[in-house]
Task: structure prediction
Amino acid sequence: MTTTTGTTTTTGAFGTARTRVEGREKVTGAARYAGDIPLPDLAHGWMVLSTVARGRVSAVESEPVLAMPGVLAVIDHENAPRVNLDYMGMIGKPDPILGVFQSDRVPFMGWPVALVLAERPEQAREAAEALVVRYDQEPHDIGFTSGHPDMYTPPDSPFGPAVASKGDVEAELAASTFVVDSEYTTPEEHHNPMEPHAATAHWDGGRLEVFDSNQGSTMVAAELAQIFSLDPESVRVRSEHVGGGFGSKTTRPHQVAAAMAATVLHRPVRVVMTRRQMFSTIGYRSPTAQRVRLGADESGRLRVLDHRSECVTSTIHEFIERSATVGRVMYDADAHYTSDRVVRLDVPSPTFMRAPGEAPGSFALECAMDELAEKTGIDPIELRVRNEPDRGPVSGLPFSSRNLVACYEEGSRRFGWADRDPRPGVRREGRWLLGTGMAAASFHSGAGPSTAAVTAEADGTFTVRINAADIGTGARTAINLVAADALGVDPERVRVVMADSDLGPAMLAGGSMGTRSWAWAVAIAVSELRERLALGGDIPPEGITARSDTTEAIGALASKERHSFGAQFAEVAVDVTSGEVRVRRMLGIFAAGRIVNPLTARNQLVGGMIWGISMALHEEAVRDRASGGLVSPDLAGYHFAANADVPVVEADWVDDPDPDDPVGIKGVGEVGIVGAAAAISNAVWHATGVRHRNLPIRPDRVLSAGTNVPEPGHAG
Result:
């Protein structure tokens, strides 16, 4: 139904649950992904990865492989075209892994050492597995430990300073009535999107064209142009459908290898990574070792917040898992110190992974807050409310909006928190101990420069063109609804064209900034189009097009702290005989700006919370110190939450429009996982009376720690 209020027409499109506009294509198999694009004379590449953790390639014995059926070529460091890595990309200097086959040097196990090309993928795989690569092996170090002697403080970056402080930590600790001093660890974790990384490259009329699975075609096209020293207009990257990304689908070795092979063979080439290859070539979340010290007065007000985190990076590229930064916006204290340190080891480079920094950092900080609540005897929610800041605790900037207390209140009411007995181990069902826990969540809400074009077509429809990326989040549908709402028309009259670098620069889908950035650009373009249409006159056959560029408009965002917030609640059951932990129910209430599409927004939040279950109880990549590689780099050995592990998970939100955003939205992609593992861990303490400060909370860890709860019928 369409209604008119004053001069503004609204269709009810914005804020209404809508199924995905491309949903039918996906469920019927009509949607084509990067590994599905049919091209004539297509060849297939299969990457060969190093089997040593450090050393040099001494020989690639390609002659026997070249004699195998269908094999076209073997590309390695001795015959590969030279590439350029001397540039600054959208997210910093490139990881040297993008310079595939440029050197005989091997910096970690799983480093690309060759690409086998064949007529069929089966032939390429068979030949790649038969290829003999010899190495001069060197001693390696992959052992990440807290306080590693080579740990260092990295320089500040555009993502923030490595160290932030105010006040005298030691003096305020000495003056505190209650003190928590605890250490926490999180393991190496991997992305594993449903669709493996894939790219199909070919040359068309002097242009390099790549069909790719990525989170931002603008970035990938720009980097490929730099890597191959091409004019930016000579590279086109399309990524119409993407089966998940989570931070891993940026520029990776397979796109470079595919483009390189297409250049060598003078024909289209497709490179699809295997699941095992993805464990070393697409990044992962670094393990962390974190120490949190909290000091509070008799009322529970924080005098000290001291959060120090350590992580790992490769020897060739610096990436910092900024786990300590979460405390810089969550709670105020007289003395505030947060730092992130890193050590270089012979391991692959980590990268952004859903809620980078905040996910592992919130586990440590929110568990420490629960420990403080236990010591002070103050309810965990009440303790957090007492430490709510009115401005950024470190930056001093005002918040654009901070409706975290409303999340606590609504979550407490719906979860039944008031009925909770704070004593651990008082609820039991046979061999199961029951407990509940909660944690707070936050994630930065920013925006990146984007361009958009909106055309009023002669037939009465509208076309939105923007180089956005839909990585499974429902972005295509959200853009449709934003445009329809701004135009005052039904969504069926709006067509969205996206995921093509030829459409102009736009923000990637990452950091919970994608939809906000694209919606801003679309809103500005629609505003201009409506002004032009208001002048009257017929629409010509080519339509009337308005364009926008938000580069200058988004600069004002830096004047305030902008974050999505949330409150996570969990109920668990712990089997005292097997050590098994079962999450029985979860509830997340979020303040995440104006919600464009409740259906896909809830899907994103629930997905993040489920990942929090995985993080708390299952996910753990283990490295073998002897070989330097992962013990089980596949989905058989890398455990994550399956359907049977997922209980009733509910996500909802409170009203929280951002007043400085033309659409009022923030972001929901990341905040759903933040705090989820902490809420589960806190619930395990409430069930057993034992703190688990090392993730995941495996059955063997539960059994070895035991419980601080008396057996039924015995006095405590």
Observations:
- Residues 1-10 have pLDDT under 50 and may be disordered.
- Residues 514-533 form the longest helix (20 residues).
- The first strand starts at residue 3 and ends at 5.
- The CA atoms of residues 36 and 160 lie 40 Å apart.
